[in-house]
Amino acid sequence: MTDDPGALVIRAPNHLGELILALPALEYAESIEAAAGRRMFVQLVAGLDPILDMSSLRAERLLLDRRRDVWAGGRQIRRTGARRGVLLTPSQSSALMFCLGGLRARRGTAAPARNWLLTDSVPRAPLLARHRVLEFMALAGGEGEGDPPVPTLAAPGDADGDGGRGGGDNAPQVALFPGANGESRRWPAGRFSALAARLAAAGCRVRVLGGPGEESLTAAVAAAGAPHGDCQDLGGRTNLVGLATELDGSDLLVTNDTGPMHLAAALGTPVVALEGPADVRQTRPLGSSIRLVGRFDLPCVPCVKNSCPRSGAGTELPEARNECMWLISVDEVEQAVMELLEEDGSGE
Ligand code: SF4
C-alpha cells in the first residue's frame, strides 16, 4: 500500500480575466506539488495557452480545443494517471470531465447540478465576499484570506520587465479598450471617442484596442482621435500575444471591465478601470498603479449583470439604463489618466 495521493489536475478558468486571477492559486498549488515531488497538470482551453507561457508556471498542460468536449477532456486526464482534481470552473461539464478522467478526488464549488459529480463540494457563498484571487486560492488549498496576491505576467520579449514603457520619445502611449462582453459594462462609445480626441490633442500616442467583432467600435473611436494627433486603430489586429505586447508597451490602459484590464494589470501597466455593474470587491484589477472610476454610490451597484435591468423614472437620467456607466464623465476619466501618468512618471 502507498499513501501517495497521485498527480493533481487543476482545471483553469475559461476566460482571460478569470485565468489571470487564478494564476496565484495555480502557482501556489504547483509549489506544494513540486515540494512533495508530485506531478501537476493544468487543463485549459487551448486559446488561452499563451497566458501560461507569460507566467512562471511550469506545470504540464492539457489543452482543450473544445471546452465542453467531455469525452476528449476525460481521455486527456485519464492518460496522465492523475488521481486528484481541483475545478476552478463552475460548470457541470468540467466536473463530468473529471469523472470521466478517472480522478478519485474531485474538489470544486458546490452547485446543485454538479454536486453529485464532486467528492469535495465547497459552498460558494462564503467565498463571494472575497476577491476572486482568494476564492481560487481557497479552492486550491491555500490561505484564501487577507490581501489577495497580485497576479504577474511577463510579456514575450520583455527581458527587463518594463515593457516598452519609458522608451522612445517622451509622449506617453495610452491604450483604450472600449469594448466589453456585456453591453452594461461598456462606457458609451461617444465618451471613449471624446477621450481619444482629448488625449491625442494633449500629445499622447493613443492606441485603440479591441477583439474580433469590435472593429467598427475601435475604428469609430480612433477616427475621432486621429484629427487631433497620433491615434491609431488596432482593433481586431492583435492576437493574444500581440495584445499583451501592445499593453506591455503602453504607459497606461483605459478600459471597461474586461480580460485585457486584468492582463494589463498583471503586466504592470497602469490601468484606469471604468467600473459599472461589476462587484469590485471580487474582480477589481490588482496592482500598484490602478485607478477605479465608477458610481459606486448608486444603490443598484453592483448588479453583476451583462444587461442593465433598470428602466423608468426616479433616476438621474431620463433613460435610466446603464446609469452606472453613463454617469462617468470624460472629465473625470481624463483627470484620472493624467494623474496616474504623473504618478507613474510617464506624464510631462
Ligand atoms: S442595474 Fe445599476 S449597476 Fe446594473 S447595469 Fe443598471 S445602472 Fe448599472
Describe this structure in words.
The protein starts with 7 loop residues before the first strand and ends with a helix. Strand 2 (40-45), helix 2 (49-53) and strand 3 form a beta-alpha-beta unit. With 348 residues, the chain is α/β, with parallel strands linked by helices. It has twelve helices and twelve strands. It has two domains: 8-139, 3-Layer(aba) Sandwich (Rossmann fold), CATH 3.40.50.2000; 173-344, Glycogen Phosphorylase B (Rossmann fold, 3-Layer(aba) Sandwich), CATH 3.40.50.2000. The protein is globular and about 65 Å long. The strands form two sheets. It has a six-stranded parallel beta sheet with strand order 3-2-1-4-5-6, sandwiched between helices. The protein has a six-stranded parallel beta sheet with strand order 9-8-7-10-11-12, with helices on both faces. Helix 8 (240-248) crosses helix 9 (259-267). The chain binds iron/sulfur cluster (SF4). Residues 184, 276-277, 298, 300-301, 303, 305, 308-310, 322-324 line the site of iron/sulfur cluster.
